[in-house]
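Can you give me the bound-state structure? Components:
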Amino acid sequence: MTTGNAHTTTGLAATSGGQGTAGDFFALLKPRVMSLVIFTAVVGLFAAPSSIHPWMGFVTILCIALGAGASGALNMWYDADIDAIMKRTAKRPVPSGAIEPGEALGFGLALAVASVLMLGLLVNVASAALLAFTIFFYVVVYTMGLKRRTAQNIVIGGAAGAFPPMVAWTAVTGTIDPGSIALFMLIFMWTPPHFWALALFREGDYEKAGVPMLPNVAGRAETKKQILIYSLLLVPTIAAPLLTGTTGLLYAAGAVVLTIKFLVDAVAVYRASSRDAEDKTTKRLFGFSILWLFALFALILAEKLIGIAPVGGLL
Amino acid sequence: MATPVQPFSPDDLKRRRRRSIALALALLAVVAIFFVSTLVRLGGNVAERAL
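Here's the bound-state model for the whole set.
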């Protein structure tokens, strides 16, 4: 007699892994991070100076999303030990026991290879190479290399999150252009003040896990100063898409208003003297920083959809 | 004496079946993506090739 399931009578214990639901595997992809990746990649696709067949555009975005998901899964595999300690991450599928570390590793590697191969075979090799580098940068350089070693982890590691619009742009043009670097810079320079604001009100979590974030290495005052410095650096950064002839006046007007508000919030963080005031101002800056990035990319997308011409670039 | 191996529970089997279905759908999606992408990339050229 056959049971149709040899494991029920012979093999693995039910608790030895392989018990995660499809939803657990989906959670490994970090869907919230992925949604921002998809959005910025779509903007990169539209912002590129030439066009791509809509279907190939869809394939490009799908591959970038899968690549981002692969990075998330590999990050959760490697960081399961510290994720278990931090409140924000303790319920992730690996530390909660829903998915075995080996399963997360296999899932992440399979997705990474599949996404890069698909992009290379179906769209172009340059964008696939850039996607492969993005995954490598996030998993090996940031997660394995920088995260547990230096308080500058997110300054350098932020590049990984900044690549998706560049990958999408390269899928359209086949090249890396100043315009795509300008989009990269927007996310790259935004990352430090965004994450340091989070680190200020989640300082205890990172300290407990032994992750050297700026507040628990250099202190809260230094972190607030660095937030202000990086926020000021956003001023020349928002000019980059204009200088490269990527964006027009709608973006220019919106970016100026949004960045003034960003600076006002960053100054409030810098000037906060009590812990209560710090918590309040850092949460406000953290929340607004998400809106800032979303709105800037939405303005670029709106310009392309409406047909607003870019201002003459200098680069 | 070794602890007896626990068989999979009905819940475990249900979860596994759902994972299998999700995997099958993903594989079908990959096939569809390659098929449609091939059509898109070939475009009208397929009718103009030398015979």
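A couple of observations. Confidence is low (pLDDT under 50) at residues 1-15 of chain A. The longest helix of chain A spans residues 275-306.
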